[in-house]
Amino acid sequence: MATQDETFEDVDWDELTGLGLSRREKTMAAFGVCYVVALVFNFVVRPAGEPMIALGWFTYEPRAITWLFVPSMAIGVFYGVWPLYNNPRLTRYYWRRFKRNRAAVASALFLGAIFVVGLVGPFFFKEPTLQVTNGYQPPVYTTVDASKPLQCAGEVTTVEGSRLCHGTWTHPLGTTSEGEDILKLIIIGMRISMQIGLVTAMLVMTFGSLVGTTAAYFGGYVDEVLMRYVDFQGTLPTFFLFLILSFLFEPSLFLLVVLFGTFGWEGTARLVRSEALQRTEEEYVSAAESAGASDSYIIRRHILPNVSNTIITNATLIIPGFLILEAGLSFLGLTDPSVQSWGKIIADGRGDLSQAWWIATIPGVFLFFTVLAFNFLGDALRDALDPRTEGTNE
Amino acid sequence: MIGLAGCGGDGGGDTDTPTPEQTEADDDVLGDDTPTDTPTPTPEPPETDTPERLGDTLVGPEGEQVTLQLVYATGTGTTETQMQLVQQLYGQVGINVELTGTQFNSMLANYAQNKTEDMSQDDATFNAGTRDESTSAREWDLMGGIGFNSYPRTPPTIRSFWADERKAGATTNFYGYRPSTEVAPLIDEAASATDPDVTQENLAQVFGILSEDQPVNFMTFSTVISGFRNDVSGFTEEDVGPSFGFDDQTWYFGNDASVGGTYITGDSTGATTLNHIQISDQPSANRVALTMDGAYTLNNENEVVPRWVEDYDVKDGQQTYEFFLRDNLQWGADFGQMTADDWVYWIQEVHQAEDNWAGDTNQSNYFRNEEPIPVEKTGDLSFEFQLSEPDPFFLQRPIMWGEYCMPQGLLEEYRDAENGGQGLNEDDRVQELAYTGNLGPYEFERWDRNSVFVATRNDEYYARNTVFDGDVPYFEEEQYQVFGEEATRLSALEAGDITTTGLPADDVQRFVDNDEITVVRTPDPFCGMLVYNQRANGWEQLRNQQVRQALSMAVNKVTIAEDILRGNARIAYTHQPEYSDWYDESQVTRFGGPDSHAIGGAQRMLDEALPDGYEFQ
Amino acid sequence: MSMRSYVAKRLAWTGVVTVLVLTLYFVMLDMAPGGGETVFAFQAASSGGDPQAAEETFRQIRGLDRPLHVRYVDYMTGMLTGDWGWSTTRSQPVLDALAAAYPYSLQYALPSTIISIIIGYGIGLYSATHQYELGDYLGTFVAFFGISIPNFWFAIMAVLIFAVQAPDVTVLGAQLLPLPSFYQTGVVQQYGWVSWENARQLLAPVVVVSTASIAGNMRYSRAEALEYVHAEFVKTARAKGASNWRTLTRHILRPAMVPLMTIFIADILGLFFAGAFFVEVVFQIPGLAQLAFNAIINQDTALVMGTTLIPVFIFVIGNLLQDIAYTVLDPRIDYGDR
């Protein structure tokens, strides 16, 4: 259970009266205000053409998707990290159960590394640009037929009649057909993958859990209406909608994430609802009701925290689906051509697999391990957080 | 015939009647293959003429850097790369370019179609009004990934692109071009002159004006590249040219011309219909072409090569064209012999039918000045067209060139029925080509949608041992196999599972090096271009001819042709390829080629041409 | 309300949803600009014709020249009476198109589903009973391999390795390698649906598709089995001396099987609208997934309506079946009281 180990003297009555806002929720509100101010500043006040932050050499112009990424991270911090921080005993308990799955621990470290590198890395180098003569350089210690690149950055040797171009350390992972360094693209891709994953997860979690818990708690007519809408949304052709919207507006990462996040939560809703259905029958809920708590209070403070395990696990497990979906859409040519996600590099390089195999394979390997890591992590989280799976040894 | 605009300069795998040059000894066509023993550096512009740059940014009257919106069509392989190069080069000139990639049909809909303020969006078309009144739904300055056919056989057809946008005939002038010297009258002169020298003179002037005016940046003419498995024989280097494959009935497998084998063409798109009345795409046309020969075809010298039409007569100073059919042409499905009656009925009741009951996609060619061209039967097997003005290009137009027909009996069943066109379209005899009789080398066998179209050798082929020497065709079966994924299609060629397919311009070398495959290259009349928006919603300085010239100068076409397209393209300077009979070098001004003054020169030109508010910093 | 009336209500809702969704599709198709009309008009204009007339011809051919509501009523009545219209991008009746494409999808989807169920359930159960051991990690890795790798990359690699660059391998006189580089419908014509040649063509697609679905099955079976692996009655059975296998089959599987059946039902129902798009595109199998996708891309309205009717129906019915199964399984949830 996620309730605190409190004694009577520890109860903060201020917190329980009035709006019932905890310290965490007050911080969230403050953050929200800052965010809205920044939003207004960027889109209304700031003159067009100037980057948002310009401090001498450091200029920063956030893409549309960053405006969703920042609140996603904030939600992750407020709902994920903060409660854990407040509850050291619980955190230790979960960690003990989690770390039995060694593969999951490795995955968590890997994902953490990707998150940090992806977030911070791109600030340290310039985005690679087109340089046709530098295309098709092989990774270091490998070779490619010398006719493939226009100019070989490394040495060219002749082996058994065929001329081979060698890789160099200037491009340790090689270059794409347009001469862009793959290592730099991978790092940029880390950020993009994180953005895709976290933003869609946030949207799906938010909508799914709200709808699921509300339906379960209220039951009856509300339940019926919400669930029938969930049915309907499940049949919505999100892909189709994406196709049409990308005809009407230009295809962009923002559109992809918003669309699939906003219309992809029906599975989560059903799952959350089935969990919450069990919770609403518990005694503490009827106790809170008889104590006079409002519906929203009960949902927010009693039901949601108790189904949060399911929500988090589910979120961790749908993120990889979205990453693969984005790769698939790149394959179909339906994504933003200016965003160099891993999926796009793989899709662009698929025609050259027989000769310039590194273009599609190296990002593919990264994508593979990232998705794999999310899957391991999600399963381990479910094992660790789900109270029904009593561990064999504690 | 069917010209698909928007192929953006790549000779991808869509086109089929490959017109490449077969090479036996070395897979090198048109002699511009990069030698494989040294890496090819980008050719440097000549040292003497590179002026220094004037600055890093071009600043406009409001004190901000000039920013141009470039929209391009995604999907074609190297378009994105080319546009990024343009962005880079313009960045060096000092202009900031913002790229927007979108699908080709939505690019046309949102950027090329325009309307005046009081029109509804449904009425939007490519030239709905003058350039000040009629603008597109979205703002843009430059457009890439689009190409216009240059019609080297019938150059007057380019009129609709270059006529003054205020004139009615400029139906595709969506960029609002106003020629410095009137182009349309020159083209009309050329179109109706009976003396080829007059035609040549006028056309040369037109190409000169276009190269001077730079309404668009004419960038490249690409090459259609095809790969064949080595066992395909029957053609030599001399067969290379724009009409390569016009006599492919004579091809065979192996060393001697004997019947056998299945010839499989890999196609990236499938057919949509086999009803040739409604066909508007090349893949569908290719499949029908297996079963029917058409009236006549053209060889590489644009001469008429007879098929169903045995002979023709040009009379009255190129105003009357008479055609004589062979007498051994039989329809299938018991429709009897093909006679002039079929043809006259066909032209009058389908091509010229006012209500277009049949859904004909090629009606406009049978009308002149809004009136249908008079067609008359002159004998059992002959009929003639009577034009009101001389037309020296008549035979090369898609009027009788490669034209099919349908039995009058079949058409009559649906002519006056309700929804006749749809009824005809859904008729099995039409969709299964049952009426083709002995009219083509192959007969329809089956069509597995989105998979394969199979045609088997026609035992009754009328041309066997008559029009052609020998027992043509030599293949037992011909198939068109659809591949949705290019990687699979090319793998299939390498594995030998298909006989031929088109190759992408930037990935030819591995097929050239492959011992089992022969690469053939054919010139392509499509000109890949960068369009300048001269309408009111583009940068107003684009209306200045010198500004356009400067921008064209800044784009290094050598990089595009040699590096991005790996030498599988020729640089373009005007709207006609150099291999065309009508191309005249003398009046063409060159921008962006190897002798161009590139960035520095472009900046100086801009400095001169732009009004006072602009300066380089 | 009783279970029967509940089911009846839900079925009625299914019908309503289907109609709603079809209407939605219809309207969206009409709104989308990508139908090829502009391209066609441009082609016509570039060769000297009149773009307006060309657009009209195009609309006429596609049947778009009548007003929206007339077409809508036409389609809807057609759907109900069994005339699902004419596909303009394939030039055949929609029903013919569906009937032609379906067997191609089924022939790789059925073996893949069976394989992935067997392997998935197997790995899941093994994982549950051997938690945190090396076998668990390996099995999980194998299961996750399929969903972690981009399908299209895997498929293209398969073509490259087994079709283009593979050496000649014959087994018992029959050709095994190299595999065909693409799926040929001619093989079915010549040798039949159940034949060695056809099986060879399907080998790579089936492998790619089944690996992708193993993980889902594995996850469910593992989760369900885990619920019972540490349960008291299992401990009791072990204490009484039951072997691992007996514990597994008689004590764990039984309660776990029931929810697993609902997943099984979902899998089988999924076969009704089989479609692994990327596999079909790369191997060039003319199945339902490509049919549906191409219909949408080319805005072939009649075909889009036809291909989407089935999955809509399946999805809603599937949800209903799962809901019913859930109430049956968990006595705490009772729709009667709510």
Structure, explained:
The complex is a heterotrimer of chains A (394), B (617) and C (338). Chain A has 394 residues and is mainly α. Chain A has 14 helices and five strands. Chain A has two domains: 63-128 and 182-389, MetI-like fold (Orthogonal Bundle), CATH 1.10.3720.10; 132-180, no CATH class. Helices cover 63% and strands 5% of the residues of chain A. In chain A, a hairpin with a 2-residue loop joins strand 1 (53-55) and strand 2 (58-60). In chain A, helix 4 (88-98) packs across helix 14, helix 6 (182-218) packs antiparallel against helix 12 (295-332) and helix 7 (220-235) packs antiparallel against helix 10. Chain B is an alpha+beta fold. Chain B has helices at residues 79-93, 104-112, 159-162, 184-192, 196-213, 282-291, 340-351, 408-415, 420-426, 428-431, 486-495, 509-512, 545-554, 557-564, 598-609, and strands spanning 58-59, 67-73, 96-102, 114-115, 135-136, 142-149, 216-229, 232-233, 252-253, 262-267, 296-298, 304-306, 309-315, 320-325, 367-368, 371-372, 375-379, 382-386, 442-448, 452-457, 477-482, 500-502, 517-532, 569-571, 615-616. In chain B, the strands form seven sheets. In chain B, strands 2, 3, 6, 7, 10, 19, 20, 21, 22, 23 and 24 form an eleven-stranded mixed β-sheet that branches. In chain B, strands 13-14-18-17 form a four-stranded antiparallel β-sheet, with helices on one face. With 338 residues, chain C is mostly helical. Helices cover 75% and strands 3% of the residues of chain C. In chain C, helix 5 (94-129) packs antiparallel against helix 6 (134-148) and helix 5 runs antiparallel to helix 11. Classes of the chains: A mainly alpha (394), B alpha+beta (617), C mainly alpha (338). Chains in contact: A-B, A-C, B-C. The interface between B and C is large, with 64 and 61 residues.
Keywords, separated by commas or semicolons:
heterotrimer, A: 394 residues, mainly alpha, MetI-like fold, 2 domains, three-stranded antiparallel sheet, two-stranded antiparallel ribbon, 63% helix, disordered C terminus, C: 338 residues, two-stranded antiparallel sheet, 3% strand
Quick description:
Chain A is mainly α and 394 residues long. Helices cover 63% and strands 5% of the residues of chain A. In chain A, helix 2 packs antiparallel against helix 3 (66-86), helix 10 runs antiparallel to helix 12 (295-332) and helix 13 (342-349) packs antiparallel against helix 14 (357-385).
